[in-house]
């Protein structure tokens, strides 16, 4: 039996990605959902149609902790992180899921991942037990680059998440320049930290 560690719907709610302790990532097609009331009065969401995965992604050699869909502006892109110290970025190309990038420079489990708002490009933050946060970016030259925040949390990082974009004009109009990138992280040192890049 495998434990399910994470389940994430894509932007449109038509696909579900799950990850588990058996090292697998599964993709399900979820076109619509039926709400069922059981005899005991509990409500249950049941996907209509396909209940088996449309794809199984093999690549990790340890339990997969989290999956995260990129904004659809970048097509069907999914990131995963694992106890095996790696982050894998997957992309659906011609109906088949392929590994397009692998980040294996952490020294311990990668516990959490989060895509930045799409206005910042294809950028992923990764939090690791090795105390560091890495930020992976796909640049205009179509090359993956990285930045490391060393010792972000003294006893390891458990969570990372990006803040929504902030514009210099107003909340209504988004034609001004972006002010800054912000993200938050949480660690085993009992701290939550907000990071900002001006």
From TrEMBL:
Which keywords label this protein? Lysosome, mRNA transport, Nuclear pore complex, Nucleus, Protein transport, Repeat, Translocation, Transport, WD repeat
Q: Which Gene Ontology BP terms does the record give?
A: COPII-coated vesicle budding; mRNA transport; positive regulation of TOR signaling; protein exit from endoplasmic reticulum; protein import into nucleus
Q: Which SUPFAM superfamilies match?
A: WD40 repeat-like
Q: Which family does it belong to?
A: Belongs to the WD repeat SEC13 family.
Ranges of residues in domain Anaphase-promoting complex subunit 4-like WD40:
96-163
Decide whether keyword ATP-binding is in the record: no
Pfam family membership, one: ANAPC4_WD40
Q: What is this protein called?
A: Protein SEC13 homolog
On whether Nucleus is a keyword of this UniProt record, the answer is yes
Q: Give the source species.
A: Onchocerca flexuosa
Named from the GO MF annotations, one term is: structural molecule activity
Q: Which PROSITE patterns match?
A: WD_REPEATS_2
Instruction: Quote a single Gene Ontology cellular component term.
Output: nuclear pore outer ring
């Amino acid at each position: 039996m495998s434990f399910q560690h994470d389940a994430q719907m894509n932007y449109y709610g038509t696909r579900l990605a799950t990850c588990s302790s058996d090292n697998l990532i599964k993709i399900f097609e979820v076109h619509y959902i039926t709400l069922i009331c059981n005899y005991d009065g509990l409500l249950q969401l049941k996907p209509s149609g396909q209940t088996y995965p449309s794809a199984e992604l093999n690549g990790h050699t340890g339990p997969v902790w989290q999956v995260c869909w990129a904004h659809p502006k970048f097509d069907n892109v999914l990131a995963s992180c694992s106890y095996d110290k790696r982050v894998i970025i997957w992309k659906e190309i011609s109906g088949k899921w392929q590994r397009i990038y692998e980040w294996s420079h952490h020294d311990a489990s990668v516990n959490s991942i989060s895509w930045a708002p799409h206005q910042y490009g294809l950028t992923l933050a990764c939090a690791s037990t090795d105390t560091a946060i890495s930020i992976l970016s796909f640049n205009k030259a179509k090359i993956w680059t990285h930045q490391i925040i060393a010792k972000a949390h003294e006893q390891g990082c458990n969570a990372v998440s990006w803040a929504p974009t902030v514009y210099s004009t107003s909340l209504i109009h988004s034609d001004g320049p972006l002010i800054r990138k912000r993200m938050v992280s949480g660690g085993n040192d009992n701290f939550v930290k907000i990071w900002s890049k001006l």
